[in-house]
Design brief:
The complex is a heterodimer of chains A (263) and B (449). Chain A is α/β, with parallel strands linked by helices. Chain A has helices at residues 48-55, 78-87, 104-109, 119-132, 148-160, 178-195, 206-209, 232-235; strands at 4-17, 20-28, 31-33, 37-41, 63-68, 71-72, 89-92, 166-170, 198-203, 214-219, 222-229. Chain A is globular and about 55 Å long. Chain B is built from 14 helices and twelve strands. Mean pLDDT of chain B is 81; it is low at 390-405. Classes of the chains: A alpha/beta (263), B alpha+beta (449).
């Protein structure tokens, strides 16, 4: 049994806009295991971003609990939330959100500022991360000198800077063309498999969502009961597409149901 | 951490060059004013102070002289009181008295000594035009002062000036000798041992003296007889000094003189005291006027400075507000990455302070170079004040004419204070916007486009 890294209990978010109460989330119970790559799908206005903001401690729920890495973050004072955001969470945004006046490596170093790491260590780590996302040699480029896909890679490297417990990606492919979108999702998938990084990704693109482990559906602020397995592990030969059982990349047949695996 | 904040601050500043430039210019001008105005005021205070001291010194000297010469009664032709130097020398025609009465006075009861003098100024009338007015004045080359060359009398009554800087006083009866003032020495380029032609006669310069009074330095002391000769005034004198035996005799002798010579003007230390008093009144009035003006200038200066500081402060505030608004999203990003309110605030205040520091340095540079110009530009009264000082009297016999011209020059302390004020202004101006920025909720900040 894998350990839970993220769990919500009866999460509810109500906005008041002009005297009207708008229920953005209601009764959301979400569980994410360590090392999972989960996608949350839903049409616009379904509360995806609200959910992600609450999970990322950028916003507070009206009711309910968010337990991140064993800590109920809804009970924490604002001051501690900075620490949580800095060390436990890595954000990837739709619009990349790089600081335009810092170059690639400086953007990656930014979250490490104020940590115990020395200047040299920060630089070294940032360099490694940029290499990991396939941007070695582009360290000194400013955001405007990078393509959209490259900017999102820098943003992913930045999200990984403090070795967070979880990466929260809000429509990370929303501003990218199809080809680049796949590249970015594959990069996230690679990080998930190679580094064991837990990723929760919000998207409205079902093709992108299928590339994850598990797809959840959010509709009108409610998490639907139905879940779907993604093809993320199947492609890597780590899961049987028929029964969902774990396989090894070397297996020719599924050890659980005996289905012949594609090679 | 610090280094990162600084780097970001500088990057941001260099990203918004035009805006920063505008703030720097506004701040620079404001600080330049801030520096120049007190410098200008200080220059005015200095000159007022210098004038006050000079007046006081003149008055003290006059009073000392009056006390020292209390026993002396002056007899001149026709003028009601002791002619003051200015009137005397600006009038070329001075009425003379027959020397014969010198011996008559000597016989009067209560008279100790009688010393005759002769005096005449040489020069020409000149007209000078300035921006505001036309002055006509006497350019005096020198003033002949005929005195008896008598060391006994000199010892008693100081016939010669005492501050001799070259050579010596003339000996008794040394008829071809003259003692000249520094001004004459310079004008004619002669010193002790040289010859100087006075009104057609050659004289030997035996000494040069210095005096704090300009006119005094134009004096040429020569033997009374020689003076009478070259001035075609044999048997005539211009002034007679009658020395009474003691203080009670002064009034008695004076009254007797007045009765005996109704045509002549007789003046005792009483009259001289009046002169001194009126002089003092004149000086005091003048200083009073100066200080009133100075007060007015100071009020205006404070207003100007305050207004410019408020204007600049508002501009910094406005600019920082604008900048913060523009960068709301960035604040959201920073917060999402785990930066604290304090981190965000530091960033913005630091940027404000850096811009202001640049503004302050620019202002200090402008201020220290352009202070004299700026001070008079911002405070036009300053200039008129200086004009009043220099035009009053209009010519070199005015006691303040020899004062150095007023130049507003800010000192280091003032410059540093100016820079300090700039930084403070920038920091304060950005404090509120930065505080607002730091309290923006991250979700809202991130949603901002």
């Amino acid at each position: 049994m894998s350990e839970l890294i993220l769990k919500t209990e009866q999460l509810e978010k109500v906005y008041k806009i002009g005297g009207r109460r708008i229920r953005a989330l209601s009764g959301v119970n979400l569980q994410v295991e360590k090392g999972e790559f989960v996608s949350i799908m839903g049409p616009s206005g379904s509360g995806k971003t609200t959910l992600l903001n609450i999970l990322g401690c950028l916003d507070k729920p009206t009711r309910g609990k968010v337990i991140l890495d064993g800590v109920d973050v809804t009970k924490l004072p604002e001051k501690s939330l900075y620490e949580i955001r800095r060390h436990k969470i890595g954000f990837v945004f739709q619009t990349f959100n790089l600081l335009p006046y810092l170059n690639a490596i400086e953007n990656v170093e930014l979250p490490m500022e104020g940590t115990k790491k020395s200047r040299d260590e920060r630089r070294k780590r940032a360099r490694e991360l940029l290499e990991m996302v396939g941007l070695s040699g582009r360290e000194d480029h400013m955001p405007h000198q990078l393509s959209a896909g490259e900017q999102q890679r820098v943003a992913i490297a930045r999200a990984l800077a403090n070795n967070p417990a979880i990466i929260l990606a809000d429509e990370p492919t929303g501003n990218l063309d199809t080809k680049t979108s796949y590249q970015i999702v594959r990069l996230l998938g690679k990080l998930n498999i190679d580094q064991g990084t837990t990723i929760v990704m919000v998207t409205h693109d079902s093709h992108i969502a299928t590339l994850t482990d598990r797809m959840l559906f959010l509709h009108d602020g409610r998490l639907l009961k139905k879940e779907r397995k993604g093809t993320h592990l199947v492609e890597k030969g780590l899961m049987c597409p028929r029964c969902g059982g774990r396989t090894q990349p070397d297996d020719i047949r599924c050890p659980h149901c005996g289905k012949k695996l594609k090679k | 951490m610090r280094l990162g904040v600084l780097t970001r601050a500088f990057r941001n500043i260099s990203r918004r060059k035009v805006r920063v430039l505008l703030v720097v210019i506004a701040l620079g001008f404001s600080i330049a004013v801030l520096i120049s105005v007190p410098a200008g005021i200080k220059a005015n205070q200095d000159i007022t102070q210098a004038l006050t001291e000079k007046y006081q010194k003149d008055l003290t000297r006059l009073m000392e002289q009056i006390n020292r010469t209390a026993l002396q009664i002056y007899v001149t032709a026709g003028m009601p009181s002791t002619p003051n130097n200015q009137q005397l020398y600006q009038t070329f025609q001075i009425p003379l008295i027959n020397e014969s009465i010198v011996d008559e006075i000597r016989t009067l009861d209560g008279v100790q000594d009688v010393v005759p003098f002769l005096m005449k100024a040489f020069g020409e009338k000149k007209t000078e035009q300035t921006a505001t007015s036309i002055y006509t004045y006497m350019d005096i080359y020198y003033v002949i002062r005929g005195v008896p060359f008598n060391s006994t009398l000199d010892d008693l009554y100081f016939l010669f000036p005492c501050d001799i800087i070259e050579g010596r006083k003339p000996y008794d009866g040394e008829s071809d000798a003259i003692l000249i003032g520094l001004n004459v020495s310079r004008r004619f380029n002669v010193g002790a041992g040289d010859t100087l032609n006075i009104n057609g006669t050659d004289f030997r310069v035996v000494g040069v003296f210095r005096s704090s009074i300009d006119l005094e330095e134009k004096m040429v002391y020569m033997d009374l007889r020689e003076a009478q000769k070259i001035l075609n005034a044999e048997g005539k004198v211009e002034q007679i000094m009658v020395v009474a035996k003691d203080l009670p005799s002064v009034d008695k002798v004076a009254n007797e003189l007045k009765a005996k010579y109704p045509d002549l003007a007789v003046s005792t230390y009483h009259e001289q005291q009046h002169t001194a008093e009126s002089m003092q009144r004149q000086y005091e009035e003048m200083l009073e006027r100066l200080s009133v003006r100075l007060g007015q200038i100071q009020v205006t200066a404070n207003q100007v400075t305050l207004i410019s500081l408020i204007a600049t402060g508002s501009m910094v505030l406005f600019t920082m507000f604008y900048t913060v608004r523009e960068r709301t999203k960035e604040i959201g990003i920073m917060k999402a990455l785990g930066f604290t309110n304090w981190n965000v605030m530091t960033q913005f205040v630091l940027e404000g302070a850096i811009i202001s520091l640049i503004g302050g340095i620019v202002g200090a540079a402008i201020g220290s170079v352009g202070a004299p110009m700026l001070a008079t530009l911002v405070l036009p009264q300053l200039r008129s004040n200086l004009e009043m000082l220099s035009s009053h009297g209009g010519h070199s016999s005015a006691p303040w004419a020899s004062e150095p011209s007023v130049v507003a020059s800010p000192d280091m302390q003032l410059i540093l204070a100016g820079i300090g004020v700039a930084v403070l202004l920038g920091a304060l101006g950005s404090l509120y916007p930065a505080w607002r920025a730091s309290r923006t909720r991250p979700v809202e900040a991130l949603r901002h486009e």
